[in-house]
Recover the amino acids of this structure.
C-alpha cells in the first residue's frame, strides 16, 4: 500500500515537471524563438532533440557586435545594448610602451595651452565607441625625466585637435610620473584616436628613461587606456 502511494506521488511529480518544461520550451528549431519566463528572447542557436528526450544545444551565440552579420545577431545586439546598466564598462582598449624616446621639441613654459606641435608624440590609442551617448574615460601614465631641472609637460590630444584635452607638468630633473585622467561623452560612433605628447620647456625630455641613462633594462613603462562606459 505504501509502495503504491509512493509510486503515485512520483508519477504526479514527473507529470508536473513535464508540463512545466513544455510551458518553458516552446520550440527548438534552428534560429528559434524561445519563450522563457514570459519573455521572448531571440537566440541564434542550433538544437536537436534526441529520441531519448534529451536536449543537445550545439550552438549558443549571443553577440554584441558593431556590425551584425545576421538578423538574429542584430536582435541579440539590440537586446544586449538595451538592457545594459548605467556605469557598465562596454569595452577597454589600451597600449603600453617601454620604448625610450628623446623628446627635443620644446613646450613653452607660459600661460597658453600646449599645442599639438609642441613636444613629441610618444603614445597613441584608438577606440570605436558603440554609442554616441556613452562616456569615455581616458587614463594615461607617462614616465620621463628632464635634464637640469626643466619643466616636463605631458598633454592628451584627440584626433587632430590642436589644443589638449588635459595637460600636466613636473618641475624636476629626476624621473617623474605624470598621470592624466579625462572623461568625455563619446559624441560619435566613429573611431577616435587619443595621443600623448611629451616635452621640456628648454631642453630634452626623456620618455621612459632618466636623463638618457638607459636604466632598468626596458622595464620603465608608460601606458594609455580608454574605457567606454554605458551612460
Amino acid at each position: 500500500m505504501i509502495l503504491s502511494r509512493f509510486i503515485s506521488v512520483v508519477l504526479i511529480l514527473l507529470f508536473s515537471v513535464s508540463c512545466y518544461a513544455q510551458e518553458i520550451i516552446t520550440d527548438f528549431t534552428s534560429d528559434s524563438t524561445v519563450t522563457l519566463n514570459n519573455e521572448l528572447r531571440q537566440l541564434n542557436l542550433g538544437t536537436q532533440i534526441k529520441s531519448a528526450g534529451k536536449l543537445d544545444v550545439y550552438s549558443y551565440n549571443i553577440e554584441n557586435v558593431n556590425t551584425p552579420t545576421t538578423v538574429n545577431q542584430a536582435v541579440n545586439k539590440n537586446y544586449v545594448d538595451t538592457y545594459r546598466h548605467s556605469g557598465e564598462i562596454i569595452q577597454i582598449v589600451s597600449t603600453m610602451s617601454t620604448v625610450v624616446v628623446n623628446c627635443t621639441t620644446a613646450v613653452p613654459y607660459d600661460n597658453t595651452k600646449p599645442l599639438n606641435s609642441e613636444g613629441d608624440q610618444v603614445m597613441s590609442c584608438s577606440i570605436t565607441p558603440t554609442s554616441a551617448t556613452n562616456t569615455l574615460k581616458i587614463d594615461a601614465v607617462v614616465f620621463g625625466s628632464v635634464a637640469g631641472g626643466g619643466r616636463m609637460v605631458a598633454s592628451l590630444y584627440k584626433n587632430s585637435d590642436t589644443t589638449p584635452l588635459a595637460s600636466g607638468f613636473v618641475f624636476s630633473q629626476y624621473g617623474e610620473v605624470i598621470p592624466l585622467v579625462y572623461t568625455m561623452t563619446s559624441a560619435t560612433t566613429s573611431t577616435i584616436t587619443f595621443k600623448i605628447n611629451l616635452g621640456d620647456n628648454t631642453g630634452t625630455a626623456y620618455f621612459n628613461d632618466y636623463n638618457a641613462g638607459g636604466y632598468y633594462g626596458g622595464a620603465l613603462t608608460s601606458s594609455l587606456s580608454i574605457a567606454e562606459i554605458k551612460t
